Amino acid sequence: MGATNAGTVPVERPDKFYIGGRWVEPTSSDTIDVIDPATEQVYFSVAEARNADIAAAVGAARSAFDVGPWPRLTHAERAEFLRAIGTAVEERTEDVAQIWPRESGILVGAARSAMAEVSEAYSYYADLAGSFAFEEPVAPTGGGSFGLIRREPVGVVGAIVPWNVPMTLIAYKLAPALLAGCTVVLKASPEAPGAALVMAEIAERVGLPDGVLNVVTADREVSETLVRDPRVDKVAFTGSTAAGKAIAGIMAERVGRCSLELGGKSAAIVLDDADIAEAAAVLAGAECFLTGQICGSLTRIIVSRNRHDAMVESLAARFSQVRVGDPFDADVQMGPLATRRQRQRVEGYVEIGLSEGAVLAAGGGRPVGIERGWFVEPTVFGKVDNSWRIAQEEIFGPVLTVIPAKDEQDAVRIANDSIYGLNASVFTPDADRARAVGVQLRSGTVGHNDNRADFGIGFGGFKQSGIGREGGVAGLQAYLENKTMVFDERPAGSGG
C-alpha cells in the first residue's frame, strides 16, 4: 500500500503498469504526484508512462485481439466476465470512495452513490449479450439468395478518460468494448489515476485473458503516442473540446475510428409558468455536485426579463447557504476544485465576468476561513449577455450565468447560440410545453425540470460537444463494425 497524508491508498501497485496480464516495471523512473485538492499535499505517486510503455501496452492489446481468445469467445461468455467485473466493482466501492475525493474533490457520499451506477453499467452490457442482434439476416438486393449483417468488434481501443468522474467513464467505455470483443488500452488521467489502477486489479482478479485490458498513466504529450499508433483501431475520448479536435485530426490522417464526448455550456430554460424557487433549488444543488466540474452542468440559466431578478436572487440565496469544505465531512455540501489550475481558471473567469459587465450576485471568491485547499465559492452572475465569454466558454466550475430573454422563442435562440450542444433542460410544470421547447434545442440531451443526463439511455452532444454516444445500445454500437455477407444459399448456423 502506498503512503499518504490521510492513511493508506487502497491500490496495490501504483509504481507499475498493467500490461499483457502482468504488472510490469515502467521503462523510466518518472512518477506523477497525485495532489489532494483539500489539503494541497501529495496523496500518492504513480508511475508515469513514456512512449515505450504506451507501445508495449498497444502491442499487448493488438496481440490479444489478433491471436488471443477474447474476440473468439461468444458474447455470452464475455458477458460472464462483465458480470464478474460488476460484482468486483461493487466490492471496491469503499476503496474508490476513499480515492475519488482525494483526486477530484467529490463529496465522499456522492462518490459512494455514483459507484452503484458503475456496477450496473457492467450488468447492463452483460444483459445485451442476449438481446442485441450481433448477427442479422437481410434480403440481398444485388444478387445471391441469403444475406447477413454481422456486427463485429472494431479492434484495439485506446480509451482516454479525464479526472472528474473516471470510474463512471471507464465503465461506459470498457463494458461495451469488452462485450463487443475489443481489447483495450486504458490511459488514465495524471490527476486521477486511482480508478484505472483499481480496474486493473479487478481485471487480474476476474481472470480477463492477457492483454484484454492494459492500464497506463501518462500526461498529454505521451498520450498522443496512443492516438497516433496505427495498431489502435479506435480512440474513445472524454475531455475538452480542444483535445478532442486534436484527436479527431490525428485519427482522420489514418482513417481511424473515434468517439468524442467533449465540452458543454448547457442551457436551462426557465419558462414563465415554472416556480422560480423550485428551479433555483434544483439548479444550485446540481451545480454543487463535484464543484461544477461536470461537462453537462446547466450553467446558462435563461429566463424572461421580468423574472430575471427573482431568478438571480433565488440562486444567490441558495448558493449563500452552501457549506464548502472537506469532502469527507458529512455536513459539507461542496468540496474543492480538483487542481490549482482549475481554481485559477475559475477565478480568471470571475474576473472576466466582472470586466464584461455582469452583476456578481453571490460568491466570486474563496470561502472565508479556509486557508488551504483549492476551494471556491459557488458563484452567480446576473444580467449576462449571451455573447460574453462567461456565457460562451466552458468554465468547469461552480459558476452560473443568468441570461434574460425577451420571450420563449428568444430563449430558444439564446440556448442554441453556442458552439456546444451537450445538455439542456426546460423548467415548466407542463410536459407538453417542455417537449415543444425541447425539440427545438440543438442538444444531445434535453431534460425536464432537472439535469437529466442519462448514460443508461445514451449521452453525447451535438456540434462541438462531440461525436457519438456513450451508454445505452448506441454505446455498444460505437465498438462494432458492420460486415455485409451475401451467399448463394443460406449457411448452416446463420442467424434468423
UniProtKB/TrEMBL annotation:
Keywords: Oxidoreductase. Its EC number is 1.2.1.86. GO terms for molecular function: geranial dehydrogenase activity. InterPro entries: Ald_DH/histidinol_DH (IPR016161), Ald_DH_C (IPR016163), Ald_DH_CS_GLU (IPR029510), Ald_DH_N (IPR016162), Aldehyde_DH_dom (IPR015590). It holds the Pfam family Aldedh. Residues 23-484 form the Aldehyde dehydrogenase domain. The active site is at E261. It comes from the Bacteria. PANTHER family: ALDEHYDE DEHYDROGENASE, ALDEHYDE DEHYDROGENASE-RELATED. Belongs to the aldehyde dehydrogenase family. This is Geranial dehydrogenase. The lineage of its organism: Bacteria, Bacillati, Actinomycetota, Actinomycetes, Pseudonocardiales. The gene is geoB_3.
